[in-house]
Fold:
Amino acid sequence: MIFLSGGILVQWTLVLLCVVLVSLCVKSPSKTRHGKEPPSPARLPLLGNLLQLDLNRPDEGLCELSKKHGNVFTVHFGPKKVLVLAGYKTVKEALVNYAEKFGDRDITPLFHDCNKGKGIMLANGECWKEMRRFAISKLRDFGMGKKAIEQKIQEEIQYLMEVFQQHNGAAFDTSRPVNYASSNIICSILYGQRFDNADPEFKAHVDSANDIVTILGYASIQIYNICPWLRPVLWYWRVLMNKVNQDHDRIRQYSRDLKETLNPRQCRGFVDAFLTRMLSVEAKGQKDPLFHEDNLVYVVGNLFAAGTDTTGATICWAMLLMAKYPLIQARVHAELEREIGGRVPAAEDRKRLPYTDAVIHEIQRVASVVPISPHVTSCDVTFQGYFIEKGTSVIPLLTSVLRDEEEWERPHSFYPEHFLDGNGRFVKRDAFLAFSAGRRVCLGEGLARMELFLFFTTLLQRFCFEPPAGVSEEQLDLTPAVGFTLTPSPHKLRAILRS
Structure:
């Protein structure tokens, strides 16, 4: 059963009735058959396969359907037809070998409401190309993958460990301080500064970004994407847009504050660089169709959300999984003690810590923080013998890649040996697509990898993570919370300072 805004059955029934009534008024466009179409599970008239899926976790249902219908099949979200790609070989072939044809983002009604087709993550065409190119260039300029950002990460970890120590071994919610820490790292790149974790505006900005990502995964929001006419009756749509607008207002204010002290010859961060580009064009009496305040707000919002949510969620999964599997945690700590001792871990230590590196990769594989990456075909394409029309919504099912039974020895278990050879050396796995692949691969992958490694090694060096008193390892729940990305369900852990 799919529940709407808090699980109220009456509201869900009303939504279904609205879907039926609206769908009756919608005439499906005629289609010319140019070839064999992908298989599809049996569906209900008008509702399609909605009742076969939990819209709070569609990836799970789609993975199950792929076992019966293969790695290329279609489902119907109400009147909307969606192509699903499952398994490593199929997803990689589509995103890498057919990159141009499968590389556009599916701009759903909600994505358009949030970004108006601008920014990076929720844009296509020239805007996406130029903003992505500019962002990659400037992220590198301001430290991504360099020693300078490594030092900032190490400093931020020290602030985080102070917060952990303040609890004196008592159980607490680790998610908030972790999210503030990961957010401050992307802030140092975007704004050229870190914020005090007690700053109410900063905390509101981070909390709001996390709330937005959570609401994006709600069933009622998925219904809105299927039938946008339902917007007037969807309370969560209003909540979401209020948070999005508040976040955009904060970014505008931060940017205007930086503009007042801007020195084009000495940019402090990404916002300064964007403002410098924007103002240089305006000084010539011209208008740039891409470098303007709205795009600045959307691009910064995209980078801020991506740099806060996914990295923070993965670090939280790391601590939870270490508390769940104390023997693995002990083995990681032993390797850290043996290879690093008491000094601060550095990015260059990765090659000396094969087991630790394997554990980090396995955390990302099991967590599958970004289970679905919505795409759309940019042209007609014949793929694996099936004809796919231009404009078809596509779901490359990343969860199915990270749990592909043909690629992983124990796909449904936490098993760091997936990334180790017989001699205990770390090995890369082609099917590790935690950052996606192709044109839409995560542009901050290098920064995320460094953050995860430094956070994980430093925290495991200093703390032992355990369940709350009276709770066994077996009782720790690994069920993810509802959201567009998969974060751990609310929980508390103890961070015991090592002697």
